[in-house]
Amino acid sequence: MPRVRVPLDGASLGPDALKSLGKAFDNAWAEIAGQFQGSTQQEAARLNLANAILSVASDDSRDAEVLKQAGLQAMARNYASLPISKDKVAK
């Protein structure tokens, strides 16, 4: 599956922040990918997740779990049918 590539319009993130972003995206997608299996919305969902995680990221972003939870919260709001437990997004 191709990686999502999102332009960062002038944003600059260091290697540690980028590593955390990648880990957050991969872990969040692993939790919700099954909801989009075979769907025509799969790539749109991946892009939405990437945008959600990027929207809270900064060069100080190092905690992949925090970034992941932010992405899952945004996805839960945007895709109300996703069975994302409140325990997972309340942390």
Write up this protein.
The protein is mainly α and 91 residues long. It has one domain. The protein has four helices and no strands. Helix 1 packs across helix 2, helix 1 packs across helix 3 and helix 2 crosses helix 3. The termini are far apart.
What's this entry about, in short?
The chain is an all-alpha fold and 91 residues long. It has one domain (15-89). Helices cover 57% and strands 0% of the residues.
Briefly note the structural class of the backbone: mainly alpha
Strand proportion: under 5%
Cα distance spanning the termini: 29 Å
Helix content: 55-70%
As for the number of domains, it is 1
Round the mean pLDDT to the nearest integer and report it: 80
Count of helix runs: 4
Outline type: elongated
User: Which regions are unreliable across 5 or more consecutive residues at pLDDT < 50?
Assistant: 1-7, 85-91
Radius of gyration: 13 Å
The biggest beta sheet reads: none
Order of helices and strands: HHHH
Strand segment count:
0
Task: Provide keyphrases for this structure.
91 residues; mainly alpha; 4 helices; 57% helix; disordered N terminus; disordered C terminus
Question: Could you outline the blueprint of secondary structure elements for this entry?
Answer:
Blueprint: H1 15-32, H2 42-56, H3 64-78, H4 86-89
Helix pairs in contact: 1-2, 1-3, 2-3
